[in-house]
Amino acid sequence: MFKKILIANRGEIACRVIKSARKMGIKTVAVYSDADRNALHVTMADEAVHIGPPPANQSYIVIDKIMQAIRQTGAEAVHPGYGFLSENMKFAEALEKEGVIFVGPPSPAIEAMGDKITSKKIAQEAGVSTVPGYMGLIADAEEAVTISDQIGYPVMIKASAGGGGKGMRIAWNAQEAREGFESSKNEAANSFGDDRIFIEKFVTQPRHIEIQVLADKHGNCVYLHERECSIQRRNQKVIEEAPSPFLDEATRKAMGEQACALAKAVGYTSAGTVEFIVDGERNFYFLEMNTRLQVEHPVTELITGVDLVEQMIRVANGEPLPFKQEDLKINGWAMESRLYAEDPYRNFLPSIGRLTRYRPPVEGPTTRGGIVRNDTGVYEGGEISMYYDPMIAKLCTWGKTRAEAIEEMRLALDTFEVEGIGHNLPFCAAVMDHPRFTSGNITTAFIAEEFPEGFHGVSLPASMLKRVSAAAAAMNRVAEIRRTRLSGRMDNHERKVGDDWVVSIQGEDFPVAIRADRGGATVAFADGAAMRVESDWTPGQSLARVLVDGEPLVMKVGRVTGGYRIRVRGADLKVHIRTPRQAELARLMPEKMPPDTSRLLLCPMPGLMVKLSVNEGDEVFEGQALCTVEAMKMENILRAEKKGVVKKINATVGGSLMVDDVIMEFE
Predict the structure, then answer these.
(1) β partners of residue 278
(2) How far apart (Å, rounded) are the C-alpha atoms in residues 228 and 337?
(3) Ramachandran category for residue 122: left, alpha or beta (phi over 0 → left; psi -120 to 50 → alpha)
(4) For 348-422, where are the alpha helices, taking DSSP H only?
(5) CA atoms of 40 and 125, how far apart (whole Å)
(6) What pLDDT, on a 0 to 100 scale, did the predictor assign at position 258?
(7) Kind of pairing between the strands at 508-517 and 571-578
(8) What per-residue confidence (pLDDT) applies to 269?
(9) What does the alpha-carbon distance between residue 9 and residue 12 come to, in Å, rounded to a whole number?
(10) Which of 12, 182, 288, 301 is catalytic?
């Protein structure tokens, strides 16, 4: 077995590889850029080598710098993680020439399957059903429009060397095809150093289901069942689960066998993933093969018990697979929520900054018989950089059934504390409670269909609203009693805490009466309902774990005037607990209106201005492109919301922008 492995990556996946290597008794080498000098993967590894400035094209994807780090440390093997150089044939060839083992497939397999155009041709030759499209290289935007017209809209414009949703656009007409081609080409060049683009038919109402394969150097290949990855936004996966709630055993077997046949056809070894589009009749079509470890691999590990990173290392070492296909059973159900540094209230635009608070749920078995796992590469006090992918962590849960796995995820998301940046925890929580998701009736269009106007928070249903109200009332009584016991009070001014309160939450008032005892409190509502609340929460704690009628409720709690800011199940609530007289007076207070910004184009994210599409004095129309801002390797086109005339442009191409900077003013 190898004595030392270098991990040619950063962040969460580098930390994940280090964990398995450590378990196997293998020393690890981390590489890092200037921006990652204090990163978690650097402190976890046995050694660390500096490889350059923050931009990936000057550090993490410069093959020569990785090779120098290998020579400097004497690493015998390299695990590439995902992204960066993980599917770069030249990198695999460079390692082979150096006599260093690549923990991944052989370079011919990377060349054959890593390129989406070539892989589709091979799949067609192997008799695999593929989505209609144009496999050749596309010269310019006008040729892209001509090809799109021939295929028929909608079409998917993809970077041949792409991944992670980068370099991908859906076009519904010629103008979107023209713009999408240019943006995809630019993103592909910046992210992968390869700007080749191809176009295929976009299948409406599809599910994205992928098969995990694992092959050794002795001719053995198995599939570790499937992952459902249909909950996507901008073609980037957000929620994954294993197995799929849609597949039957026959379809699962057919997809798995086809995936293995494709892997064998190109002499594939190591872990890889074959992605399919599956329609409503369970017909499946080959999309692409990812010749690397997938981001969402933990859900497969949770239902099979197989450590995929360990198996990749053992396969690279020449060992045969320790199991056969019939040994790989599906045990329970697993969910994964990708926690991104993206602000869901600003259309999921990137958010950067310092993690002033980062407290994930406790990993391991839960009191309900499930499992919580959190794969991360950050820590409290660390910074989320503008240079790399915005992923903070991958929160995973396991349960005996899909319903149990979802409930474990709900509680884990409510327990996860992240402050200092915008993040998508509320959105993930909203998905877990969405009736369409819980029923399993999902497609890749789920987010677009269920959140067509973006995410603006959650309105809790009546039953949950009363549970939160009861908990808040009981917690407020604890805080009030504590305040009466403060020292330094004036004599003869003893304050008594009453039993009658009004809880104002989500635009509703709930008059309640509280009867407390040593074990907790019973909160009675005006309609006759009563709820028992038990908790060891004390004022000042940011997380409240409460039992309401015996059922767990976890809430993030912050103090505001007259009450609390409570975040739970995707809702962000201001909860006021007042005496009946205070509530009566509060209803007479006027509401403060937000400032008018309708004549301003505000920057929705921190980033770089890469293109201004209009000039001062230009008349613009609804939907017209105004400018392009680049953030976290993604180009974002900002468009006019209505007809108007550009009065003033405050930004310049190449300039840095902060959130809410005024880019343009309109007459």
Answers:
(1) 207, 284
(2) 12
(3) alpha
(4) 402-415
(5) 45
(6) 93
(7) unpaired
(8) 96
(9) 9
(10) 288
Quote the tokens at residue 294. 């997938």
- For residues 350 and 634, the answer to whether their CB atoms sit within 8 Å is yes
Question: Could you tell me where the beta strands, DSSP code E, fall in 53-196?
Answer: 77-79, 101-102, 133-134, 155-163, 166-171
Residues 631 and 635: their CA atoms lie apart, in Å, by 7
Rounded CA gap, 8 and 611, in Å?
33
Calpha distance 283→285 (Å, rounded): 7
Q: Return the number of other C-beta atoms located less than 10 Å from residue 570's C-beta.
A: 25
The answer to whether the CB of 563 falls within 8 A of the CB of 574 is yes
The SS3 of residue 515 is strand
- Identify the DSSP state of 130: B
* 426 three-class SS: helix
1 token code pair: 């077995």
Q: Per residue in 265-323, pLDDT tens? A: 999 999 999 999 998 889 898 989 999 999 999 999 999 999 999 999 999 999 999 99
CA distance readout (Å), 379 to 44, 188, 384, 391: 12, 30, 10, 13
Q: What is the pLDDT of residues 59-117, one digit of tens each?
A: 999 999 999 999 999 999 999 999 999 999 999 999 999 999 999 999 999 989 877 77
Examine the pLDDT at 493 and tell me if it is beyond 60.
no
- Reading phi first (left if > 0) and then psi (alpha if -120 to 50, else beta), residue 217 is in alpha
Two tokens, residue 323: 């199991």
Q: CA 188: distance to chain centroid?
A: 20
Q: Which residues pair with 79 in a beta bridge?
A: 7
Q: What is the rounded distance in angstroms from the CA atom of residue 245 to the CA atom of residue 227?
A: 10
Q: What share of the chain is helix, strand, coil (3-state, %, to 5)?
A: 30, 35, 35
First to last CA, the chain: 70
Tokens of 492: 């003869």
> Which of 576, 598, 447 lies closest to 504 in space, CA to CA?
576
The whole-number pLDDT of residue 489 equals: 55
* pLDDT for the residue 68: 97
Confirm whether 76 is a catalytic residue: no
Q: How far is CA 41 from CA 15, 310, 377, 434, in A?
A: 5, 18, 6, 35
Half-sphere exposure for 556 (CA within 13 Å, toward CB):
23
Beta bridge partners of 594: none
The two tokens of residue 250 are: 């026959």
| Helix, strand, or coil (residue 55) | coil
Cβ neighbours for 648, distance < 8 A, ≥ 6 positions apart: 616, 664, 665
Dig out the tokens for 55 from the structure.
């931009």
The structure tokens 């809410």 sit at 660
Which residue is it, tokens 């973006």?
454
CA gap 469, 576 in Å, rounded: 10
Is 134:180 a contact under the CB 8 Å cutoff?
A: no
**Quick count: other Cβ atoms within 10 Å of Cβ 515?**
11
If you average pLDDT over every residue of the chain, what do you get? 92
